Amino acid sequence: IGVTGVQTCALPICIADDIMPRIFDPYFTTREPDKGTGIGLYMSKVIIEQNMGGHLTASNTEGGVEFRIEV
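Given the sequence above, the corresponding structure tokens read:
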């Protein structure tokens, strides 16, 4: 069984450099208090890394932010 990479450009914009290190933190959000919990990316990372033995990363590219899942 090898490594499978799945890439998707989720947003056509980049994430600010000062925000990028925190996007997978639990309860971190840039939305207003009643618009989100900030738990979605955290839970995704936990499921992929702890339950599936993979990796979830995000990086800015010329086309926007790219989320990469390796399982």
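Residues 40-51 form the longest helix (12 residues). Try to locate this feature in the token string yourself.
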